[in-house]
């Protein structure tokens, strides 16, 4: 029966995750919307073409420096092997084959979780955990579904296998007496310890971040040796297992080698990982030695443990090498302010996000924690101590950074299952006394206490006189508790399965937007080759970019797609390379000065700039922390409240002039052209505490409350402007020009002189600014636009110059520019142009009869044109 249940749960895990494969169109592949998916596929591409080549340095991303890769070759290796075995040779075949790796691992996680649950509690807990882990967590489900060729699901898989082998080694070693620990009887724990080391090493080859699971090992070793000392039992078994397991890992790491440029970093394959293994061995030896030295002196022993903790803190604080490792660990776990504020995965884990991933399993987890704590106090069972430590460490990691919630998948399933199994066991004397023995009988096992049904019957016959009424009441209570917990367990499984199915059933909506896919195809076919071989092998020390190379500045989440689909060189990418600081890509997009933006792009050797509506509107605020280190969105966007007749307040956004002056808005919304508004929205507002006696808004603290709004002429000199200062002061009143839509600026927006539109995608859509619920349909503004950075032709003259243009989609617009220092610098050619955006005639200076023709050579070389 157990085998059948496990096969059923494995089938559930696999079938749910393979549903996206049903949406694959003939002779093509799914365009998975995941960011890192396509970089893994780029690695698989190279490995299939030149097996088993793995580029630790990649010039095809993070231009113009290139990127040293931080994660390992195992996942691409498995995908490449699968492709080679199945005979997949075309890109479509390779992608479709690689997509099966994650669902297979997810199915394999089911029996591993069962074995852990059985070891930590009993078979019933193992079965419930196996069932739950087939559908939770939602975050893990998404990243282990078909098409997600990403290493994160493999990390969860190998960490779980490592813990299973490690705990099995401890369990078998603990059963051997101290004097027989080094005899032939120890062969099984020795082999299991070595297997644990191998499984950790496989996880290490997937990504070095599996190092985080060693925090669990270090803490559980500390707690377990302390418990052994408290019970006056030896910890030799723990010493042997840890020494063998971590020695195995250390040997494999030395055979694999370390990256010469890695230094002492923990986030890549550096020698620091070897030091960690040696440190864990030393940690175990030290704890064991103290336990033996103070075997009969419990007070001194616990004082020595306190001394170790204090000494470790001092060592990390004062030894330079350890300080560096400490800082790296802190950065990995808590991140920089910009990284944390602007990347969703590194933001704090909210209750809503927790429920979205685990739903009612969180209730069961809470109950499981209570049962585990009670059981540990009574029995001090090592596996249960380990699970509590595992769960606690993962919670501590996940609360500040929700990306670690994947690592919580298995411990949550196990703890929730223990709650369910524990309640069933506690109901033996009530309603559960009929249910549980039936299950145990069918599975051929015993109850958690090791009793057979006959033994329990005999034990009951020898008990004190029967108090029927009390027993009936207790049985009723236990029966109700059993029904409630079983109901929550079944509901948790069902809700998770439905949530998972909803995701995979929406596979067409989870793909790369069609406008971006169209743009990537255009980049591949219509931009010059970079001179960098997509399938080449590169040495970081020897490599130099050819003179023909150039970069493409695009929103950072598109970087890997540009590498994979267009075979071009992105400047930014989901690794966040070249994104932050005053000279990064975010600073370019936010720059209000074209000269400064040009300097940034020139330093990055960029030739093309890609913008999209998302970056210019709803995700615009995410650019700000990368430049300022703060999540304050003023002076670009101001949140305010509008009072209504009932005394309530409605939240709204106000767009300030700084928003319209940014490069991202000038390019995406205005095509780099001059815009001079005739009118603007004049808004007055006051700063007050909300809620107060005059409102019922669900917010608190100081905020802007609008007192007046009217449309006025921008040339009206009588308008009083009182701009907001750096801080909000209660009672202060301000007045300024604002707008509520991205395409209506409040002041003049100058033209850009060295950026020409060369391609745009076919769709214009409605957007939500900064996550606001207020949607804005942008008139004839396309989703994705590509601009080329050129020197621009110089035309002497004064006034305003215009040029009628038609884009590749057939959209007509007028490029307008105001003269500066007696000349115009124009980016479009009227003759001989090769771009998809073409002029319908020559340039014309408004208010004159002068027309000027400009050649492509003039624009590219920055020639002076008299006209």
Structure write-up:
With 867 residues, the chain is an alpha+beta fold. Helix content is 48%, strand content 12%. The chain is built from 31 helices and 20 strands. A five-stranded mixed sheet has the order 6-5-8-7-9. Strands 15, 16, 18, 19 and 20 form a five-stranded antiparallel sheet that branches. The longest helix is centred in the middle third of the chain and has 38 residues, at 468-505. The radius of gyration is 32 Å and the shape is globular. Mean pLDDT is 88; it is low at 429-440 and 447-454.
Shape: globular
Low-pLDDT segments, ≥5 res:
429-440, 447-454
The amount of helix comes to 40-55%
Beta fraction? 5-15%
- Summed up, the helix count is 31
Biggest sheet: strands, sense, closure?
A: 5 strands, mixed
Query: What is the typical, i.e. mean, pLDDT?
Result: 88
| SS-based class | alpha+beta
Number of DSSP E strands: 20
């Amino acid at each position: 029966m157990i085998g059948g249940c496990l096969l059923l749960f494995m089938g559930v895990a696999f079938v749910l995750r393979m549903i996206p494969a049903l949406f694959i169109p003939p002779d093509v592949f799914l365009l998975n919307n995941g960011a890192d998916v396509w970089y893994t596929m780029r690695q698989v591409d190279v490995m299939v073409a030149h097996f088993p080549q793995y580029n630790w340095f990649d010039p095809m991303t993070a231009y113009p420096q290139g990127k040293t890769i931080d994660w390992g070759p195992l996942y691409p290796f498995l995908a490449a092997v699968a492709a080679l075995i199945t005979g997949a040779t075309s890109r479509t075949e390779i992608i479709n084959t690689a997509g099966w790796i994650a669902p297979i691992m997810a199915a394999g996680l089911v029996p591993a979780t069962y074995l852990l649950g059985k070891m930590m509690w009993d078979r019933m807990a193992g079965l419930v955990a196996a069932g739950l882990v087939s559908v939770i967590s939602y975050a893990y489900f998404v990243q282990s579904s078909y098409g997600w060729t990403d290493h994160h699901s493999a990390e969860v898989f190998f960490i779980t296998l490592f813990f299973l082998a490690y705990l099995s080694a401890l369990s078998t070693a603990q059963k051997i007496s101290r004097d027989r620990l080094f005899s032939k009887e120890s062969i099984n724990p020795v082999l299991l310890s070595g297997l644990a080391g191998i499984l950790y090493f496989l996880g290490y080859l997937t990504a070095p971040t599996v190092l985080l699971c060693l925090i669990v090992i270090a803490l559980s070793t500390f707690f377990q040796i302390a418990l052994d000392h408290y019970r006056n039992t030896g910890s030799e078994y723990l010493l042997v297992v840890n020494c063998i397991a971590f020695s195995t890992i250390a040997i494999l790491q030395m055979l694999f080698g370390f990256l010469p440029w890695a230094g002492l970093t923990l986030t890549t394959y550096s020698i620091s990982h070897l030091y960690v293994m040696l440190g864990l061995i030393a940690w175990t030896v030290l704890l064991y030695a103290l336990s033996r030295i103070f075997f009969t002196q419990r007070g001194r022993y616990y004082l020595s443990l306190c001394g170790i903790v204090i000494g470790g803190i001092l060592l990390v604080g004062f030894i330079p090498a350890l300080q560096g490792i400490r800082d790296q660990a802190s950065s990995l776990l808590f991140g920089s302010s910009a990284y944390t504020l602007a990347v969703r995965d590194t933001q704090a884990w909210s209750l809503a996000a927790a429920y979205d991933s685990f739903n009612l399993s969180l209730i069961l987890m809470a109950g499981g924690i209570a049962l585990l704590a009670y059981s540990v106090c009574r029995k001090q069972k090592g596996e249960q101590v380990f699970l509590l430590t595992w769960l606690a460490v993962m919670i501590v990691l996940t609360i500040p950074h929700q990306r670690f919630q994947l690592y919580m998948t298995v411990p949550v399933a196990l703890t929730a299952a223990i709650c369910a199994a524990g309640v069933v066991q506690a109901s033996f004397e009530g309603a559960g006394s009929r249910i549980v023995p039936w299950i145990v009988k069918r599975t051929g096992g015993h109850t958690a206490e090791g009793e057979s049904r006959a033994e329990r019957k005999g034990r009951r016959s020898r008990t004190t006189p029967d108090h029927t009424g009390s027993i009936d009441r207790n049985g009723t209570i236990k029966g109700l508790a059993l029904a409630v917990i079983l109901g929550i367990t079944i509901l948790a499984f069902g809700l998770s399965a439905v949530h998972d199915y909803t995701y995979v059933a929406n596979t067409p909506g989870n793909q790369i937007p069609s406008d971006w896919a169209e743009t990537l195809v255009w980049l591949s076919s219509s931009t010059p080759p970079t001179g960098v071989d997509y399938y080449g092998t590169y040495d970081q020390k020897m490599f130099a970019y050819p003179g023909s190379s150039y970069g493409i500045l695009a929103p950072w989440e598109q970087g890997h797609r540009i590498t994979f689909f267009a075979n071009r060189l992105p400047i930014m990418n989901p690794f966040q390379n070249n994104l932050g600081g005053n000279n990064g890509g975010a600073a370019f997009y936010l720059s209000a000065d074209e000269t400064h933006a040009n300097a940034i792009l020139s330093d990055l050797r960029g030739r093309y700039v890609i913008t999209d509506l998302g970056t210019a509107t709803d995700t615009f605020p995410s650019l700000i922390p990368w430049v300022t280190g703060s999540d304050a969105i003023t002076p670009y966007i101001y949140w305010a409240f509008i009072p209504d007749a009932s005394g309530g307040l409605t939240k709204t956004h106000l767009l300030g002039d700084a928003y319209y002056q940014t490069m991202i808005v000038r390019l995406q919304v205005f095509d780099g052209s001059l815009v001079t508004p005739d009118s603007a929205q004049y808004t007055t507002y006051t700063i007050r505490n909300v809620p107060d006696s005059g409102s019922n808004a669900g917010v608190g603290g100081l905020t802007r409350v609008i007192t007046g709004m009217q449309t006025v002429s921008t040339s009206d000199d009588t308008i009083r402007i009182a701009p907001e200062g750096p801080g909000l002061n209660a009672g202060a009143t301000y007045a300024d020009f604002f707008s509520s839509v991205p395409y209506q600026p409040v002041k003049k927006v100058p033209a850009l002189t060295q950026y020409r539109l060369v391609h745009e995608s076919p769709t214009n859509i409605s957007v939500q600014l900064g996550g606001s619920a207020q949607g804005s349909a942008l008139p004839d503004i396309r989703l994705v636009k590509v601009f080329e950075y050129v020197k621009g032709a110089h035309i002497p003259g004064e006034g305003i110059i215009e040029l009628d243009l038609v884009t590749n989609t057939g959209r007509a617009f007028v490029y307008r520019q105001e003269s500066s220092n007696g000349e115009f610098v124009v980016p479009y050619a009227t003759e001989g142009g090769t771009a998809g955006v073409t002029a319908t005639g020559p340039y014309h200076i408004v208010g004159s009869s002068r027309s000027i023709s400009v050649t492509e050579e003039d624009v590219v070389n920055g020639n002076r044109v008299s006209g």
